[in-house]
Design a protein that fits this description.
With 664 residues, this protein is an alpha+beta fold. The protein is built from 18 helices and 24 strands. β14 and β15 form a beta hairpin.
Length: 664
């Protein structure tokens, strides 16, 4: 009997559909085309030589069941797990991108998108559902408990997945289970853990086990043949390298590993800026790329493949970690610039310390200041000149005052319309926020969170920033950066377009002076670019719905977060222009405003946008003093010594400075 006929006979008991049986047989044929008989032992070698593919399947499965586990990092099924999540997986109760769905009778549909029913449309649900993190948890729960129900569930899932999903013509389009980023994520982690966890289960029969392996190989070939770019290519290549390094019994494993490692090295050099930030300017995608780099490096070292890691690769990893430390908020999280959720800095420092050796600044972060030392610099503040982040902090203490001032380009992906945006922390608390843009759904809330309306920027005639370039800076950005023991200073301008029609009605120059250790002075000079008078409105976003007016200060307000710290906003504008104060919460008309649109840890909810507006002027300067203050503490006093000179008393310290010379 020919090989094809034997394979058809073997898989026929897995389905009563001829089409599915043929698909299963195709997978086995592809796998057996690349298996190296000499590497799988004499039983397999002899069976193949004799043309007995029933025996060959049994011998191949036996080899992988008995093969020593890699036990490398997170690629082993021996680890922590959630019984609650495992039980939900058995019942078909799934949760992706904070959206729950229960499949009737536990029978999952890998091509069904609940958001098409529940709304708003979010293609990420189906894509991320097909990353199969719940399989990895199921495998670990099986190893930990021996509960064969988990193996039965997985067996049903993998057979359904292979039968149901094909590589569509638009494999990276909505509704595809074969988007290349998902293939990479499956191969670099979840499928490796799942294979390791169930390969010794008698419930997962020999044919099913090899179909699972065959599907991994098919995905690796798909990724080798169809590379993309950016952080996607890092994940794709990481997946190919991981699979090819762990399954060296396949004839194309060395070639594919070489291709993948070359792409990883090239892309890391291309994507990491000279200041250490990833070129998408999002800490979220910075950690994605960092993880891909360290996954590759740790696997190569563990398997004795260090020669496949080029010179300088380790230094690039360290550079990204250094940037993350410099960007850290006082709570050792990353500010949410561009698309981002809350990333802890120790996600970089902890792994780097274990993998590449300890450094004082790693230990400082990892021990929450108990050991080690902060980065060495003239002050605790820092400027990342290619990313364009001016990080102003009073000190490296747990209750430091902190601002991230964005003077940089858009970023090469996941960009927001947010040039000159600021966000402020005091200790662990964010007082003026950048929410990170929300879920990747199709909705007005998502559009708002990406826009200048959803950031701490200035509107012109009701229009928000709208720029298309630059994506990345090839030269250091000149922001007039100054840092010393008395103050920090940075300045930048927005001279690009506004609104959907991409017009240029005005320009904005924002100067920020951090009067150490206490408060920030933000000066925004608006100038007409077309010779006409305009309306200007400055926005500040607070994650609360409660603010109170400040007696004695025109348009002054204080937040009421109900936490340790609040933010005091005191304008020092020209009263002759009669600026109007607005506080908008949960508005949808005429413009979405007053919403916090977080991702993962903090979903869309009501917040407040505090704004000041002047109408019918050609040029105008907003001057805003921002005071992080302990709730209930004595309020600052602000006096004008002259039109442009201020005296401020705050927390027992007196400050005096000239609004026309904030850099002095």
């Amino acid at each position: 009997m020919e090989r094809r006929e034997q394979f058809l006979e073997l898989v026929s008991r897995l389905s009563d559909s001829g089409e599915i049986v043929a698909k299963y047989a195709d997978h086995l044929e592809e796998l057996f085309d690349v298996l190296i008989p000499e590497k799988l032992g004499s039983a397999f070698h002899d069976a193949v030589k004799a043309g007995d593919y029933r025996a060959a399947v049994s011998a191949c499965a036996d080899y992988y069941r008995k093969k020593a586990g890699a036990s490398i990092g997170d690629l082993t099924a021996e680890g922590g797990y959630s019984i609650d999540q495992a039980e939900k997986t058995v019942k078909g109760i799934m949760r992706e991108v904070n959206i729950d769905w229960t499949f009737p009778n536990g029978e999952v549909d890998f091509l069904f998108d609940p958001t098409s029913v529940k709304g708003p449309i979010n293609h990420e649900w189906l894509w991320q559902f097909n990353r199969h993190g719940y399989w990895a948890n199921l495998a670990r729960a099986y190893v930990g408990t021996g509960d064969e129900r988990y193996a039965e569930t997985f067996r049903a899932h993998i057979l359904k997945w292979i039968a149901q999903t094909v590589i569509p013509e638009r494999w990276n389009g909505p509704g595809s289970a074969w988007r290349t980023i998902e293939c990479g994520i499956r191969l670099l982690g979840s499928w490796q853990v799942t294979f390791d966890g169930f390969r010794r289960s008698a419930t997962v029969d020999d044919v099913t086990l090899l179909l699972f392996l065959a599907s991994m190989h098919r995905q690796s070939v798909h990724l080798v043949d169809h590379p993309t770019g950016g952080n996607w290519l890092m994940m794709e290549s990481n997946g190919v390298y991981t699979f090819s390094a762990l399954f060296t019994e396949l004839s194309d494993s060395e070639k594919n590993r070489c291709i993948a490692s070359g792409r990883l090295l090239y892309e890391l050099e291309k994507q990491i800026l000279p200041d250490g930030m990833h070129n998408e300017l999002s800490p979220d995608y910075q950690i994605v790329v960092y993880n891909c780099a360290t996954n590759f490096y740790s696997l190569a070292v563990a398997l004795g493949l260090e020669s496949e890691v080029s010179d300088g690769f380790v230094e690039l990893i360290k550079k990204t970690v250094n940037a993350a430390i410099l960007l850290s908020t006082p709570g050792f999280t990353q500010p949410r610039t561009n698309d981002c959720y809350t990333i802890t800095t120790e996600r970089s420092t902890m792994r780097t310390s274990a993998l590449l050796g300890d450094k004082p600044e790693y230990r400082f972060v990892n021990t929450k200041r108990a050991e080690g030392a902060p980065p060495v610099g003239p002050t605790a503040s820092a400027f990342l000149p290619y990313a364009g982040f001016a990080v102003m902090r009073s000190d490296w203490g747990a209750d430091a005052a902190y601002m991230c001032f964005d003077v940089g380009p858009l970023g090469t992906g996941h960009m927001h319309q947010d040039k000159l945006n600021i966000n402020i922390y005091k200790g662990r608390e964010e007082l003026i926020y950048d929410d990170g843009g929300g879920q990747y759904e199709i909705s007005r809330a998502r559009t708002y969170a990406l826009s200048g309306y959803g950031h701490n920027t200035v509107l012109v005639d009701g229009l928000a920033q709208q720029r298309r370039t630059p994506l990345q800076s090839s030269e250091p950005i000149d922001a007039g950066w100054i840092t010393n023991d008395v103050f920090d200073y940075a300045v930048a301008s927005y001279t690009d377009t506004y609104g959907g029609e991409m017009i240029k009605p005005a320009t904005q120059t924002r100067e920020v002076r951090f009067c150490k250790p206490g408060f920030f002075c933000v000066s925004d000079t608006m100038r007409s670019a077309d010779g006409n008078a305009h309306d200007y409105e400055i926005l500040f976003h607070l994650d609360t719905t409660e603010i109170k007016p400040l007696d004695g200060y025109e348009n002054g307000v204080i937040s009421d977060f109900g936490r340790k710290y609040d933010i005091v906003i005191i304008p020092v504008d020209d009263p002759a222009a009669k600026p109007e104060l607005f506080a908008v919460s949960a508005a949808t008309e005429p413009q979405f405003q007053g919403w916090y649109n977080g991702r993962n840890e903090n979903n869309l909810h009501e917040a407040i946008t505090v704004s000041r507006k002047v109408s019918g002027v050609s040029d105008y300067r907003f001057t805003t003093l921002l005071f992080p203050i302990e709730a209930g503490a004595e309020l600052p006093t602000v006096d004008k010594l002259s039109d442009d000179r201020l005296r401020v008393v705050f927390e027992g310290k007196e400050y005096s400075f000239d609004l026309n010379a904030l850099n002095k």
